[in-house]
Structure to design on (213 residues):
């Protein structure tokens, strides 16, 4: 459709569109937040990992084995940790709703991303570049790994039809099962990730100590 036609259709259906957006934000998003947090926290307890799973997507949902904690750290800082995250649409914009993220609207995704508190972004990219075989092993297991951008992540594939049924039944457990399965895949790759932690620790041990100023 041409832009003028699209504009006319929007005006004609503005009541339905506004009502749908409000419902998605005020009703569907809280359901997604609670269900996602519950699944992540359940897996965290099963694995015996550290982490937080708040029922608000504006807060960080993160996980990490206790063994990845930075040496001598008194706070929640880790040599490697994963967090629940999203990617934008292919045009660089965010979906207007969290339902859009979960349904993959215009290329948007939900995923688990990896990061470190031990070294800066430049050193993080250098570690990924240096660990060629390790990176290849993670890619072979379905991870996204790009040393140029520092990306290390695993996408969570949610089926749109299953999610629709979940909302209809007021039960998202089955629809969001891929969240748990993705975490299981990450746990299954623990040996490779432990190697990455070792590489990060070696890199961090050679960082110059700042005296301030």
């Amino acid at each position: 459709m041409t832009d003028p036609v699209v504009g006319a259709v929007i005006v004609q259906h503005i009541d339905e569109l506004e009502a749908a957006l409000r419902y998605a934000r005020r009703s569907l998003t809280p359901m997604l937040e609670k269900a996602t947090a519950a699944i992540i926290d359940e897996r965290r307890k099963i694995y015996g990992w550290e982490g937080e799973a708040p029922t608000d997507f504006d807060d960080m949902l993160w996980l990490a084995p206790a063994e990845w904690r930075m040496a001598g750290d008194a706070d929640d800082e880790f040599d490697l940790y994963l967090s629940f995250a999203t990617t934008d649409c292919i045009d660089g914009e965010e979906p207007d709703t969290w339902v859009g993220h979960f349904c993959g609207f215009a290329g948007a995704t939900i995923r688990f991303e990896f990061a470190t508190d031990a070294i800066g972004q430049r050193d993080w990219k250098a570690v990924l570049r240096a660990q060629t075989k390790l990176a290849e092993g993670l890619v072979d297991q379905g991870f996204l790994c790009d040393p140029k951008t520092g990306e290390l992540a695993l996408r969570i594939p949610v089926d749109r039809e299953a999610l629709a049924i979940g909302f209809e039944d007021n039960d998202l457990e089955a629809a969001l099962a891929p969240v748990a399965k993705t975490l299981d895949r990450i746990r299954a790759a623990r040996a490779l990730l432990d190697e990455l932690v070792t590489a990060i620790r070696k890199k961090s041990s050679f960082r110059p100590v700042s005296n301030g100023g």
In short: DSSP finds eight helices and six strands in the chain. Helices lie at 3-12, 14-47, 98-103, 121-130, 132-140, 160-169, 177-188, 190-205.
